[in-house]
Amino acid sequence: MISPVQLSDVFVEMTDTLVGDFDILDFYHNLTKHAAAVSGASAAGLVLADHRGRVRYVGASNESGKMLELLQIQNSEGPCLDCVTTGEPVINADLSYAMDRWPTFSRRAIEAGFQSVHAFPMRLRDETIGALNLFGTVTSRFEPDEVRVVQALADVATIAILQERNVTHAEALTEQLQGALNSRIVIEQAKGALARSRGISVGAAFDTLRLEARSSSRRLVEVAQAVLDDLEKDNTE
Amino acid sequence: MTVLLAATRLDLGSDDISDPGTTDPPDDAERVRLQRLINGMADASGDGIADALERLCRCAAQELGLAGAAVTLVPTAGAHAVSAASNPATRQHEEEQFGVGEGPTQDVYSSHRPVLVSDLEVTGAGRWPGYAPAASAAGVRAVFALPLQVGAATFGVLTLSGDVPRTFTRAELRTALMFAELATEMLMDNSAAEPGLGLDPAHHEAMAIHGQIYQAQGMTMVDLGVSLPEALARMRAHAFATEQDLADLATDIIAGRTVLPADH
After folding, report:
1. Chain B residues near residue A190 by CB distance under 8 angstroms
2. B150 contacts in A (CB within 8 Å)?
3. Which is nearest to B80 in space by CA: B155, B138, B166?
4. How far apart are CA B227 and CA A228, in angstroms?
5. What is the spatial distance between Cα A143 and Cα A152, in angstroms, rounded to a whole number?
6. Is A162 exposed, middle or buried (0-12, 13-18, 19+ CB in 10 A)?
7. Which of B197, B222, B258, B263 to mutate to test the interface with A (most CBs of A within 10 A)?
8. How high is the pLDDT of residue B8?
9. Are B66 and B162 in contact (CB under 8 A)?
10. Which of A17, A21, A173 is best to mutate for the B interface (most B CBs within 10 A)?
11. Nearest CA in chain A to B212
12. What are B111-129's pLDDT values in tens digits?
């Protein structure tokens, strides 16, 4: 275990996510690196479930960690998948005794020099969004204190990840709302401008725009924008 | 029952100011209480997002003892959409802000911060020379506008308005912010927003715009030979000078009854 001071630095870093240059991929990598360092594990990996419940690899402390995660996902078996499914941690699993439970994963992991595995759920209330996995090259047992620390790290990381998802969602929604509003307005403006410039009714102007969109296979809003651009250009020339 | 308890608690709080901080219910309990109140609102029982926001607006006005509440999406000087309002007069108040091209709603959207004005007649005129008189004439004296936002992304504004000068107590401000949070969640939960995709169809209905204003803007652009933003500015100036609604002016422009004066 690392010192309390180092540990508190890790927690501060893991919660400092509301900054402008926050990069989620960096965050995944740092989380796994810290989890390995805090626990003394040789490798750590992180998997997250997407909105369809499919488990995906997102980051690891090193290449071994990545390999061990992909191994589980490709073979649909392993401690991290169990952990995501049940929401329960897998602690101190000795791979030599896990051949029944995860035959392919255990064999391949042992071949790669690993002996022990632990999986901690990334959980917020009832929702499990993923699992943080630790792999050891020697059969090492986690003491209850160590389990608590790693689970706490997984918990703060969960909040950071959900927060980032929320922000991404909100940014997308803002863009979509702005885009939808602008489209509607552009179409109304073009109806008015075309009606005036050709001396026709607003309804007839709308028909003209729609016909033009259909015959040129363009979206109505694109045609409307082009009409406005042309007329606005005439004004400034 | 919950409402009565809350009211009693507030009354006690105003008499006993020794430690009002300890009487607040936890956030989760307050959220559940408000969510139940919103769901229990009579009328506007449709399933759409606009209906849900309208229930929230009515509930917020009632709960905070205000004249009205409205949700406006992406309001800027050039475009805005009032999605829901607790009553027609409040919708009118929101439209008025677009009519004059300024006001608390737009300020919240551009600054990403709440705008709280306890008495418009005291502090409004210096800040919004166009909006303040219009709001006064419409009987609005206090305005509390709160951003609907997550992180730096702001997609709308919840505007609460009162017909008498007033301030929020700390508990009321907290309730108001909770309503803004609930409105934010409603909009987020009902959309499967992914970067690069179009707007969820459910949200299109919530993007109500005043089409005639923009049609008239297009016409004015052609009539006066000016840019689109300039056309809207000219319309606003004319509406202000002739003391009429921008919407009414737009109707007259479309009908050919009014032609804005050109430069000489």
Report:
1. 218
2. 166-167, 169-170
3. B155
4. 10
5. 14
6. middle
7. B222
8. 28
9. yes
10. A173
11. A188
12. 999 999 999 999 988 999 9
Q: Could you tell me if the ipTM is greater than 0.90?
A: no
Within 10 Å of residue A18's Cβ, how many Cβ atoms? 12
Token pair in block for residue B224: 């006066």
Q: Residue A180 has which token pair?
A: 């939808």
**Tens digits of per-residue pLDDT, A139-187?**
777 888 888 888 998 998 898 888 888 888 888 888 888 888 999 999 9
> Nearest CA to A18 among A134, A146, A128, A163?
A163
DSSP bridge pairs for B70: B85, B159
Quickly count helices (H) and strands (E) in chain B.
12, 5
pLDDT in tens, A88-110: 999 888 888 888 999 999 999 99
State the angle between helix axes of B49-64 and B27-39 in degrees (0 to 180), rounded to the nearest 10.
110
Neighbouring residues of A34: CB distance < 8 A, sequence distance ≥ 6? A10, A13, A14, A153
Q: Do B68 and B98 form a contact (C-beta atoms < 8 A)?
A: no
Q: Which residues pair with B205 in a beta bridge?
A: none
Show the 3-state SS of B195-256.
Answer: CCCCCCHHHHCCCCCCHHHHHHHHHHHHHHCCCHHHHHHHHHHHHHHCCCCHHHHHHHHHHC
d(CA B70, CA B83): 8
The Cα–Cα gap between A181 and B6 comes to 40
CB atoms within 10 A of CB A213: 16
